[in-house]
Structures are given as structure tokens and as C-alpha cells.
Amino acid sequence: MADFCLFKASKPTQCDATMYKPSLVVTLQGSKMISLFGDNQPLSAGKGLISSIDIPILSRIADASIDKPYLSVVFELDINIVTGLIQEIDDTIYRDPDSQAISISTLPESLMDAVSRVVRLLDNPNDIAVIYSMLQREVIYRLLLSEQGSRLRHLCIQGSSSHKVSQTIKYLNQHFDQPMKVESLAQHVNMSVSSLHQHFKAITTMTPLQFQKQLRLHQARNQILQNVDISVAAYQVGYESASQFSREYSRLFGLPPSQDRLMV
Questions:
Q1: Which of 62, 63, 173, 216 could join 237 via S-S bond, C-beta 3.0 to 4.6 A?
Q2: SS3 sequence of 94-139
Q3: What is the CATH number of domain 158-264?
Q4: What is the SS3 assignment for 151?
Q5: SS3 for 206-246, per residue?
Q6: Looking only at Cα atoms, what is the longest distance across the chain?
Q7: How far apart (Å, rounded) are the C-alpha atoms in residues 116 and 108?
Q8: pLDDT for 114-161, tens place per residue?
Q9: Would you tell me how many other CB atoms lie within 10 Å of the CB of residue 229?
Q10: CA gyration radius, the chain
Q11: Separation of alpha carbons 22 and 163, rounded Å
Q12: How far apart are alpha carbons 223 and 193 in whole angstroms?
């Protein structure tokens, strides 16, 4: 169950910067605040966050205590399973337009039931080797059939504009620290610059350059919180100006890097 994690926290936390992979995050108890496209949204019990791309997210646990801890489960979505199940479902689902690649919503009972059965497997570890793969398929199947399933479906269709945006994001994640020209990025995924901008922003609400900046700042924060020198962290993620780095860091995380490190 390497792609399944159960999280528990007994108290609220400070803001955390995390790279979300394609995944389904389900809150079982308590709540977490997610900064999503500039808005703070609660991820409370019975709700799920569906992400179809690798994307940096700010979050903090808002409701948790020793008597009633925050509990959540995370399924990293195996794109091979997703693609295989799509091929078994009516192909009319292929025609969905671009939609934002991440959202929070109340999950249908059928999906919550499948998630609950995965969690209960932890009480019977001898069953995991046989049963988990079947439940994993069911969770993804139920997700594909839910209202949020389109977030996964259109990104898995080879050659679609959404799939090309997914490939662009993969490239940015691998080369975020390098200078980037949008023209070269568009050429890499065989799109025009205007088309890349249009579809990229429809899915992520950011331009490619804004997305790259967020990747850089998240990566730098992880290093700074591990006591890497601030100027070194800024340089390693691609910044040439320490003052520009500090300004953009403060704008995103609410504190300059030196103060932010002291808060954690």
C-alpha cells in the first residue's frame, strides 16, 4: 500500500507548503484549510480533494485535538490504472472540456464506502496483499464516475490539449530551476504559445511562468526549513536576486524567509 497513507494530527499546525501529486485526499475527522487558487477552502470530514496534476499547495490543519484528532487518507492515483479504467468506460467521457485540475467537494457515498473499506484493511494486514489492489481499482473507478471524474479523464487522453498541459507541468517540475522561455516550452509539447497559455491557465489558473515561480518558492521553503542558508536556497532554485526572492517569498507565504523559519 505504498500509494496509500493515513495521516493523524493531535493539534492545529502552521502553514505547510506541499507538492500534491495526482491524488485523492479524504478527510475522515477534523478539518484542514487549503489555499486553492487564492482562496482558503476547508477540507472537512466527508469531503475530498482531487488533484490530477503535480501542483504546489499551501495548507494547515485547522481542527484537531488529542481527544478528536485530525484524520485523513491520501491515495496517490496510479495513472496506468486510471487510463485502463477510462478505456473500459463509455468513450463519451473523452469529450470533456478543460477544467481546473484540483478541487474540493463532498464525495458520493459509494466512493466514501470504498475508501472506508481500504482503511479497515489496516485492521487485517494479512488481507492487504490480496484485497488492496481490487479496492484501489474500485476507488479510482468510483472517482471517475463522480462529478469530479473529468479532472482525471481529460488529462489521460493522449494528444489532447489537457494531456499536453500535463506534460508541460511534468517538464516544469523537472526543470523549475532553469531559465525558461514560453516559446520553447510550447514547442516542447507541440502547441502554439497562445494555445498553451489558454489551456494551462484554464487548468491551473496560472500562467506557466507563475507556476514555475510557485515551484521555485515551495522548493526553496523546504530547503530553508531544513536550515539551508537562505541565499543558497534562493540560488539553487533559480533566483539571481536575493531581494526579489525575499519579496516573492513573503508575498506567497506571508513572512520573509528568516522569520518563516523561526515559526516552524
A1: 216
A2: HHCCCCCCEEEEECCHHHHHHHHHHHHHHHCHHHHHHHHHHHHHHH
A3: 1.10.10.60
A4: helix
A5: CCHHHHHHHHHHHHHHHHHCCCCCHHHHHHHCCCCCHHHHH
A6: 55
A7: 12
A8: 999 999 999 999 999 999 999 999 999 999 988 878 777 766 766 678
A9: 11
A10: 19
A11: 13
A12: 33
Q: Lay out the sheet containing 4-9: strands in order across.
A: 4-9, 70-76, 23-29, 47-51, 102-106
Strands 31-36, 102-106: pairing is unpaired
Which residues, at least 6 apart from 24, have a Cβ–Cβ distance to it below 8 Å?
A: 48, 49, 50, 74, 75, 77, 115, 139, 143
Q: How far is residue 29's CA from residue 72's CA, in Å, rounded to a whole number?
A: 7
Q: Which amino acid is at 21?
A: K
The correct CATH number of 4-153 out of 2.60.120.810, 3.90.45.10, 3.30.870.10, 1.10.10.10 is: 2.60.120.810
- Give residue limits of the domains in the chain: 4-153, 158-264
Position 233 scores a pLDDT of 96
Q: What is the pLDDT of residues 135-144, one digit of tens each?
A: 999 999 999 9
In whole angstroms, give the CA distance from residue 253 to residue 218: 9
